[in-house]
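Fill-in record for Possible reductase.
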Amino acid sequence: MTETKDLIIITASCGKNLELSKKFLEKSNELKLSSEILDLTTLDIPLFNPRIHSKENIPNEIKDLKKKLFKIERWVICAPEYNGSIPPILSNFIAWLSISGDDFRNLFNGQPIAIATFSGGIGLELLTSLRIQLVHLGSQVLGRQLLSSYSKPIDTKTIEDIIQRLLQMKKLKT
């Protein structure tokens, strides 16, 4: 039987946002939390296309990840800004998760989630877009977010504060 994690850090990049995810992992380990990184760039998930895909042919990798995510109380999502919005790899992942059940919100409803970015640009458009999407799906998105860039280095005190705030949140039973 696999150990249930306290925190999962989902990264939508193999670059600076993976580095940011590792900072979240380091800090969560210091806080004695059972945590792991889910690197979306390592997954082999097809591009969701409603003409081809349906609830009957969901990839096994998505089914397994959804079962795992249901068991994890808190999430952090670290993603770069793409064209002023959410990166395609993250949008695709969310699309697959949302069609893989009878209720598109069932995985996200009541889920405590923190959002963070390391952006080559401003990054605020990503955080705003991601917050809107996650709230629409029913998630509890932490009010504090992390925005870092080349001119604004990653602040480990902010990471610790975000994790501490996330720890105060409980998944709502819906």
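KEY FINDING: Residues 31 and 160 are 9 Å apart (CA to CA).
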